[in-house]
């Protein structure tokens, strides 16, 4: 349990409108207090807004970055804390990716996660994100049957998940679905190249576009989703040279993941790039680890365990005092009960 600061509620209008001396004194007393009060509970909102609040990132912002050839930054988040830090760090876009199936829910692959689970995680991320443009992934099984199914799922993700747009995997074969969704006013980020939801039909997590025929397929998919109205497209596991050429032949930004720095922007899974996993876990070649959250968390938890075992924690500084007279009286009452 820890002490946190929380804003006091505004002075009620009914109190301010009364003019008796007693009420005036009460109003003055409330107004004179600090706007913060101690909160002796760990059940309070996590953190505070950044000191310098950014403007909300919109499709217009992303278009402007693309036109200026300024790389677009994107990262995944799956809950309030991961979205909170990503937004504070200044990410342009935050993706609630179906990769959360594995990194947050312990599933074997992304095909297991359900639409309802994605919506729950989207809502958590949306509560923390004040500036970044948020995107929710459509998981496998909620858009493949027909464009109408895709539209219904997209509406749920935006309406219930409180994100600004959706992402779906697939190229030419889902152009009509993208048209249907964008026609309803929902921004779509497409995803071509390696599409993890279809790993089994691709023979596993294999690089796409390594041959002329395969590279042309990726380009045709990218052009198709652009024509269908997608505002951008993720290029995953594509040779850097191919991704750069595709980027030059599109009007919309490309977001690369394992596709080189010739794309319009980059995205990584936050758990991967921050090192929030145990030693020995496999990482794709394209992942650069920028931190070691697992190691730092392990040190902190081991230290906590050690101090609890030795009774070093909690120290007097972490406890709440009781007036000596009250404590003496309490001890007398307990002793009286024993006799």
Question: Could you describe the 3D structure shown?
Answer:
It is a single chain. The chain has 14 helices and ten strands. The chain is of the alpha/beta class and 339 residues long. It is elongated, with a radius of gyration of 26 Å. The strands form two sheets. It has an eight-stranded parallel beta barrel with strand order 3-4-5-6-7-8-9-10, surrounded by six helices. A two-stranded antiparallel ribbon has the order 1-2. Helix 8 links the parallel strand 6 and strand 7.
List the helices and strands and how they pair.
Layout: E1 3-7, H1 13-17, H2 21-32, E2 36-40, H3 59-67, E3 72-76, H4 80-88, E4 93-96, H5 100-103, H6 115-128, E5 133-137, H7 147-159, E6 165-169, H8 175-183, E7 188-193, H9 199-202, H10 212-228, E8 232-236, H11 240-248, E9 254-257, E10 265-268, H12 270-274, H13 293-309, H14 324-338
Parallel strand pairs: 3-4, 3-10, 4-5, 5-6, 6-7, 7-8, 8-9, 9-10
Antiparallel strand pairs: 1-2
Helix pairs in contact: 4-6, 7-8, 8-10
């Amino acid at each position: 349990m820890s002490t946190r600061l929380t804003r006091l509620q505004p002075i009620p209008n009914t109190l301010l409108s009364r003019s008796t001396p007693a009420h005036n004194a009460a109003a003055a007393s409330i107004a004179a207090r600090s706007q913060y009060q101690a909160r002796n509970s760990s059940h309070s909102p996590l953190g505070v807004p950044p000191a310098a609040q950014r403007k909300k990132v919109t499709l217009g912002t992303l278009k402007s970055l693309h036109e200026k050839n300024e790389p677009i930054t994107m990262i995944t988040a799956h809950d309030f804390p991961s979205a909170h830090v990503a937004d504070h760090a200044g990410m342009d876009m935050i993706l609630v990716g179906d990769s959360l199936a594995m990194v947050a829910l312990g599933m074997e692959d992304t095909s297991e996660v359900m639409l309802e689970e994605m919506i729950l995680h989207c809502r958590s991320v949306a509560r923390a994100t004040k500036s970044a443009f948020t995107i929710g992934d459509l998981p496998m099984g909620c858009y493949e049957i027909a464009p109408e199914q895709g539209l219904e799922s997209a509406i749920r993700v935006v309406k219930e998940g409180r994100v600004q747009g959706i992402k779906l995997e697939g190229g030419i074969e889902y152009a009509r679905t993208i048209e249907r969704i964008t026609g309803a006013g929902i921004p779509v980020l497409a995803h071509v190249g390696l599409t993890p939801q279809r790993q089994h039909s691709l023979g596993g997590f294999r690089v796409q576009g390594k041959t002329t025929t395969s590279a042309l397929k990726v380009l045709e998919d990218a052009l198709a989703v652009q024509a269908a109205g997608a505002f951008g497209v993720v290029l995953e596991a594509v040779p850097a040279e191919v991704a750069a050429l595709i980027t030059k032949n599109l009007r919309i930004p490309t977001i690369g993941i394992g596709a080189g720095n010739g794309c319009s922007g980059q995205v990584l899974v936050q758990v991967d790039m921050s090192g929030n996993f145990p030693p020995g876990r496999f990482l794709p070649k394209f992942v650069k680890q920028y931190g070691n959250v697992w190691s730092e968390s392990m040190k902190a938890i081991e230290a906590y365990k050690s101090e609890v075992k030795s009774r070093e924690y909690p120290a007097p500084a972490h406890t709440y005092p009781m007036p000596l007279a009250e404590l003496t009286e309490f001890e007398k009452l307990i002793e009286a009960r024993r006799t």
